[in-house]
Amino acid sequence: MGGTLTNFLTIQKNLKKFSKLIYLKNRGFLENIDGREKIYLKKKINKLNRKFGGLLNLKKLPSAVIVADCKIDYNAILEAHKLNIPVIGIADSDANIELVTVPILVNVKSRKTIVFLLTLILNLVLKNILK
To answer: CATH number of 65-129: 3.40.50.2020, 3.40.50.1170, 3.40.50.10490, 2.40.50.140?
Structure first.
């Protein structure tokens, strides 16, 4: 989502709201609310989940950003570059990789290749974290 890195303080506020609503839902507090407010809160939770579900555990800006397609994710690359966050980018030969710290040139149309590379990168990161 655009602005996730550059507007991180705003994103964190929304993540706190989302986390609080999930806590209330898991504790059964939403079941005690009647009518419209209950429907409103459930819709709000679903909307926040679609927008921020994958970011719920993000407490600070990332140390690096990995993009699976440099053409599609160019806005994320620009945001990371503005904040001096290194970018590992998987790209086709026709992509602009000027701002990518570690470009990996492959056929991004091949789903198997992307899955293989992302799995490899994830394993390397986890290996370094768990040392």
So the answer is: 3.40.50.10490
